[in-house]
Amino acid sequence: MQLTLGPVLYHWSPERWRDFYYRVADEAQVDAVVVGEAVCSKRAPFKQDHIPAVVERLEAAGKHVLHSSLILISLPRERRQTRELMQSDEAEVEINDLSCLAGLAPKPFAVGPFVNVYNEVAAGFLAERGATRICLPPELPLTAVAAISAAVPQLATEVFAFGRVPLAISARCYHARAHKLTKDNCRFVCEQDPDGMPVKTLDGAGFLSVNGVQTLSDSCASLLRDVPALRQAGVASLRLSPQGCDMVAVARLFRDVVDERIDPEEAERRLGEIYPNVPFSNGFLHGAPGHVRTGAGGATPGDRLVSQARGGSLHENRA
Amino acid sequence: MELICPAGTPASLEAAVEAGADAVYCGFRDETNARNFPGLNFSREELRKGIAFAHRRGVRVLVAINTFARAGAFGLWQAAIDDAVAAGADALILADLATLDYAHRRHPGQRLHVSVQAGAANPDAIRFYAENFGARRVVLPRVLNVMEIASIVRETSCETEVFVFGGLCVMEEGRCSLSSYATGQSPNMNGVCSPASHVAYSERDGRIDSRLGGFTINSFGKDEPAGYPTLCKGRFATPKGSGYIFEEPVSLDAAVMLPALRDAGVTAFKIEGRQRGRAYIAGVVRSFRKILAAIDEGRSPPAASLMAMAEGQAGTVGAYRKGWR
Amino acid sequence: MSDSEMTGRSAIPPVLPPVLARAVAPLPLGPLQPVLALMLHRISRMYPDLYSRLGEHADKRFGIDPTDLPFAFVLEPRLRQPRVRAVRTLPAGLDASIRGPLSGLVGMAEGTLDGDALFFSRILWVEGDVAAALALRNAIDDARIDFGAVMFGHFGPLGRRLGDALRRQLQARRTVSGAETWS
Fold it and tell me: Which of C53, C144, C183 sits opposite B39 (nearest CB)?
């Protein structure tokens, strides 16, 4: 089973972004690395100048490099950038929107988690057109992952195994809105939250996290304890999504669990030390609400819900 | 300009036809359609009768089979497509590569529309659907402004349909898992958003709190207008302040944008609300019929207020006007 | 159906005058029970499609609470043995309750008022199993129940005229209570 480092979804400073990948190239035990801006086209110019050096260093270290497309492509500028990416000879692309396929030169490509592939028929359709690897949407349950892997064996399937879960994309920028600005005049306020802006419920429970036009979960996905089941389901790779923590250590932990050098429970305990104060979740994989952390004994409400889940709401009584 | 109207039940379908719809859209009573709500939607027999009723009045029926098929259970979606075609549907509204591919191969003559759930937000995406599946029309996601819509119309051969009234997604449709994060059920997989089965209201200090899947998503004062218990229209707290951080509980009301949308070359105007009652459908459809008639005759449209019908009793033109973003 | 019945400000249904509520308050509920039972029996016979829409929710217990009346109803739609009874206050343990002024509840049941619009304006409120309440609302909205026929059906044409007269009264009061039309 391989490890893939997903693209940095946040707006990190160009130097931080570059140095992160240099360290990944030098130290992280990952097989593939996805680079580029997936979330907001306004951020792309900041990292543009560093991309060649980052790619060179990653490839020199033996990493398979993929170039991410944007998730939501609507402006003429965004379409132009996407077309250039799709038609470049050297770059292997991870598409995050089907419009990429309109301008794709006949070459193999990867499919990112933002393309809606929910079943084996859709996966087969993309495989026929040159898709070689596919990171499935994070909300897919294990049964679907297994069905797709079994039906389309020529496609390497990947699941979203670590990181705050991307849940939605919008034309509107919620970072700008929170700062009483608009997207066109955003002053790049998202840079102030390199690990996302926390969104809590009115009674103080952690819930979501805002990253510009993207909304992610507050909880951090961890499929460490699901690795045996994922292997059995034919999953070829685990995606680690960069957060504001030591991703080299995260990758090492996943590598050790995949290679059965460490007990998954113990690994998740250590993961909590690497990325502290963030609850872990794996509900989606188990067909449960995404925020839930399911253990061997069944679903438990996510850590942060415990304080207020006993509020006596009728729903809770019925559940 | 066509007026496309919702119907969650046979009674609503008749109400929409009688109120002046050019076409009515509806779906089967299962997880194949994106309004899979309790007590709604059509049996096979009801759809057959509904289509016959509409056709007698010269009204078309579009059948929405617009969720993403469950892996290993594609038969359910295939059957929905086959049955809708057999019932005489004038078009199928589809979102999934799987259903589009199947319908295109199996029923080559059938008119296919790309659902808003496909999130086809640019001319390249639309061309992809037209070239691969022969799609004739695309329902545009509610993330585009009028100028962008005009350029899409110029660049593609596909007809376009846009929402003009009703519930407003602030996230791009078809790519939102907020609901399943809180409840385990999503629009893409289950055809529901913020499902009623996971909603609870409770009273606290004279305020009503709404919860979804155990998360508090809003709290209303005594006389404050309410909205659907939808996640993206809830009140939350951030370090920059509390409130409606994504969107207020408002409905889309693009009545004032109709002339601009017409000039942009839009083919059809769509009203959201298959989950609403007959009273809503008759009232909203009749009102839009009058506005369209006035625009056609070059009169200024009647100043209709549908705000009592609107979520939070407030309207917005949403992304159609630049600046919403 | 005229436009004025449906939308705009007229979506705000009138509240029964308190004097009327006070007048009926001391009346015993006993005589009401067989009338209600008969009505429900007729509805379940005349509108069997209701049950396919209600599905699993047909076996639930609903509270219907007209907030301007001194009593409420407990409804159990059950296909085989439907039950309804009037109560002074709703008991605990119901699956779902719907509260609102009588004319709002009746308007929604007849399909002249939109339930969601009443909810948005806080005129109507739902507690408990929201999915069950929604299924009930949608099933009734689709059934197009003719309450005149249900109440006065056995009086023949005379009953129908009586029903129409009552309906006109209710509508007249709706207009008087500050309804402005939007057309």
Answer: C53
Identity of residue A160:
F
Q: What is the CA radius of gyration of chain C?
A: 16
Structure tokens at B254: 């693009």
B238 in a structural domain: yes
Interface test with chain C among B307, B311, B313, by most C beta carbons within 10 Å? B307
| Secondary element (H or E) of residue A223 | none
What tokens appear for A232 in the block? 């059995």
CA distance B281 to A86: 45
pTM above 0.90, yes or no: yes
Three-state secondary structure readout of C99-166 = EECHHHHHHHHHCCCCHHHHHHCCCCEEEECHHHHHHHHHHHHHHCCCHHHHHHHHHCHHHHHHHHHH
Query: What pLDDT score was predicted for residue B149?
Result: 95
The whole-angstrom distance between C178's CA and the closest CA on chain B is: 14
Residue in this structure with the two tokens 């802006």, named with its chain if needed: A197
* Interface pTM, i.e. ipTM: 0.95
Angle between helices B97-106 and B74-86 (to 10 degrees): 40
Chain A segment 289-318 residues within 8 A of C by beta carbon are 314, 318
The amino acid sitting at C36 is L
* pLDDT mean over B288-308: 84
Q: Are B237 and B300 in contact (CB under 8 A)?
A: no
Instruction: Give phi and psi for C86, each to the nearest 5.
Output: -90, 140
Cα–Cα distance for residue pair C64/B257, rounded to 1 Å: 41
- Coil vs helix vs strand at C170: helix
Query: What residue numbers bound the domain in which B163 lies?
Result: 2-168+251-309+316-320
CA distance B129 to B114: 7
- Euclidean distance between CA atoms B223 and A271, whole angstroms: 47
Domains and CATH numbers, chain A: 2-166+217-298 (3.20.20.70)
List strand residue ranges (DSSP E) for C40-104, in order: 62-66, 72-76, 83-87, 96-100
Same domain, B110 and B158: yes
Rounded Cα gap, residues A142 and C105, in angstroms: 45
How confident is the model at residue C167, as a pLDDT?
A: 64
Which domains does chain C possess? Answer: 3-147 (3.30.1050.10)
Q: Which of A221, A245, A193 is nearest to A23 (CA)?
A: A245
Parallel/antiparallel/unpaired status of strands A156-170 and A197-200: unpaired
Give me A204's structure tokens.
């103080």
Residues B269 and B125 grouped into a single domain: yes
Residues facing residue B200 across a β-bridge: B211
Burial B34-57 (b: 16+ CB within 10 A, else e): bbbbbbbbbeeebbbebbebbeee
Q: Which residue of chain A comes nearest to B237, CA vs CA?
A: A200
Q: B239 and B99 in one domain?
A: no
B11–C141 C-beta distance less than 8 A = yes
From C173's Cα to the closest Cα of chain A, the distance in A is 37
pLDDT of residue C161: 67
pLDDT at A91 over 90: no
Q: Which two tokens stand for residue B191?
A: 């055809």
* Structure-derived torsion over alpha carbons of residues B30, B36, B37, B42, reported in degrees to the nearest 10: -50
C125: β partners: C99
